[in-house]
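Hi Y.,

Following your request, here is the sequence exactly as I used it, all 156 residues.
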Amino acid sequence: MDKLDNINPKTYEVSAGRTRSDADFDDDIEDPIDAREIFDLIRNINDPEHPLTLEQLNVVTEEQVSVTDEKKYVNVMFTPTIPHCSMATLIGLAIRVKLLRSLPLNYKVDVQIRPGTHASELAVNKQLADKERVAAALENSQLLEVVNQCLDIREE
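Below is the corresponding structure, written out as tokens. Let me know if you'd prefer a different format.
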């Protein structure tokens, strides 16, 4: 990355993490997945260009997450910091990978750019929705390494 798309991004205050109850740790109690739980999974994903999280950059917010637990469906909208962000597909891929690795296999996950916030919104959304393209991207070791860095996973 020779040149940053957004040299001096605006940062935002992060929210406090969710307070957990005893029920959250009891495996005998079925706890529905909600928007806050999904947000807590993705809020600390690192931006590929800056030493900041997606929450700090306001790329992801709890309000942009919707969950239909009974249908096992999660939708995450994200907002790139600038309309021509070249990292939008990578950010979306990192969000998708984090959720696919964290949620039960029977959940359907959609990750999309929030409408009207990116110049190539339709093309990026199409890439992120294409299971074969996502699988192919994750077979690329260099791309997988970048995604894992965003997710703060160290390869041993």
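The first strand starts at residue 65 and ends at 68.

Thanks again,
Q.
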